[in-house]
């Protein structure tokens, strides 16, 4: 096992990783920007190094600063968390070449899954279902039109280097395809420095359901069931749960097997997530694979009793998985609400000083956060300030518990989305499990 790891992240996930490392008797090194001197991850780590100015591109995204910090403190491994450099194949490759263990898959696998065209081709190779698509990048308007006519409208244009919903164009008619194609290309070039786009059949009102995987260096791969993540706004998830009210044991096994097949065939190692769209008839289609620990990992931890961050660290150090597939058991229902420092109506970020804080507690309640009374939330980063996670025997019990915990939570000094989260918990469609990716549109 490692003696010392560096955490290349901030906020609640940096704290989450420090906790896992301490329980494994690993020393921790935090890195921080000039805006994060007073952050909780800096206080909780065994050591901390400033890596640059507040702007992410000058600090948490600055590969040379982070590699320098690794060398100064002589860390054996780097945990990237989520966001920032977590899915940078370039960073993973530099770590490989510097002899520092990147706690994640190989840079080769990150490149393969980071490109949505190569990722879909890998899925097709092992018969993981995908929506009808162009099967290649599109050269011009004419070939785009040919493919769209064959697939049938509506279609969606996606950037090969995109993901998380950035740079997508929904197209309903032949007449609007040309302009959408050029717009998608231009946006993809600006956002990702790669203008390659492809076309896919558009799936109407689907659910977003993802499978959690663990894969070790010895070829063992297990799935830990699904998470329902349909409640999103502008591709930011707000409420996640496990299990999904739309998944029965048979569908879980089919989706789990599909995800495991993909991971095995590409030589995947680490925790990972395979995202699917699930249509109203219960058909599932591969969308993309996330090669990092995800924000919503706690709901899977609650229903499986496993610690996914400890598993990531053990896997990276070469240990085998602590479970086989038949040892994985699911218990009860878990829901996570993301608490953002933002105006609950306009969604405008609300940074500032926390003047009063009371964190809910009691049986089945978990709060992952890095805020404390008197802490000032900087304006430079993501508005996520806490994750409230509940675990209860049934989905209805979990909704009741979440409602109670949201009502108990007191955060003063900044505005939060707690009022919106409470509205969601009281919504009849949510309570009935009638949710799809358009669910939140009725709240604004
Ligand atoms: C789609 C789709 C419908 N049909 N692809 C958005 C995130 C990225 N992972 C893929 N996304 C979508 N791809 C086809 N062929 C609808 C979405 C989508 C979406 C997916 C999951 C959760 C929220 C979403 C919101 C809008 C669109």
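-> sequence recovered:
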């Amino acid at each position: 096992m490692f003696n010392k790891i560096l955490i290349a992240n901030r906020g609640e996930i940096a704290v989450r990783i420090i906790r896992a490392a301490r329980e494994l008797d690993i020393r921790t090194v935090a890195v921080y920007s000039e805006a994060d001197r007073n952050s909780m991850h800096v206080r909780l780590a065994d050591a901390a190094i400033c890596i640059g100015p507040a702007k992410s591109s000058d600090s948490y995204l600055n590969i040379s600063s982070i590699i320098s910090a690794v060398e100064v403190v002589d860390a054996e491994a780097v945990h990237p968390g989520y966001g920032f450099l977590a899915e940078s194949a370039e960073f993973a490759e530099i770590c490989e070449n510097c002899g520092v263990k990147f706690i994640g898959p190989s840079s080769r696998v990150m490149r393969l899954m980071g490109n949505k065209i190569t990722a879909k081709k890998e899925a097709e190779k092992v018969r993981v279902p995908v929506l009808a698509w162009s099967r290649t990048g599109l050269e011009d308007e004419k070939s785009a039109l040919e493919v769209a006519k064959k697939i049938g409208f509506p279609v969606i244009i996606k950037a090969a280097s995109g993901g998380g919903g950035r740079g997508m164009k929904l197209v309903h008619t032949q007449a609007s395809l040309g302009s959408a194609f050029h717009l998608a290309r231009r946006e993809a070039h600006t956002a990702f420095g790669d203008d390659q786009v492809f076309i896919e059949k558009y799936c109407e009102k689907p659910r977003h359901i993802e499978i959690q995987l663990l894969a070790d260096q010895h070829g063992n791969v297990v799935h830990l069931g699904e998470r329902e993540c349909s409640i999103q706004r502008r591709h930011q998830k707000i409420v996640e749960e496990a299990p999904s009210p739309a998944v029965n044991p048979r569908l879980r096994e089919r989706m789990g097997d599909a995800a495991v097949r993909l991971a095995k065939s590409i030589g995947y190692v680490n925790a990972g997530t395979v995202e699917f769209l699930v249509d109203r008839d219960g058909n599932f289609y591969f969308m993309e694979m996330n090669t990092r620990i995800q924000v919503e990992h706690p709901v899977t931890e609650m229903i499986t009793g496993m610690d996914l961050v400890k598993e990531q660290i053990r896997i990276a150090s070469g240990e085998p998985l602590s479970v086989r597939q038949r040892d994985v058991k699911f218990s009860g229902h878990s829901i996570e609400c993301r608490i953002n420092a933002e105006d609950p109506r306009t969604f405008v970020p609300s940074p500032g000083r926390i003047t009063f804080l009371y964190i809910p507690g009691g049986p089945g309640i978990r709060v992952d956060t890095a805020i404390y009374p008197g802490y000032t939330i900087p304006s430079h980063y993501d508005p996520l300030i806490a994750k409230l996670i509940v675990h209860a025997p049934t989905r209805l019990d979990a909704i009741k518990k979440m409602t109670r915990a949201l009502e108990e939570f007191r955060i003063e000094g900044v505005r939060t989305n707690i009022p919106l989260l409470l509205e969601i918990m009281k919504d009849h469609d949510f309570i009935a499990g009638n949710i799809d990716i358009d669910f939140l549109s009725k709240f604004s």
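The mean pLDDT is 97.
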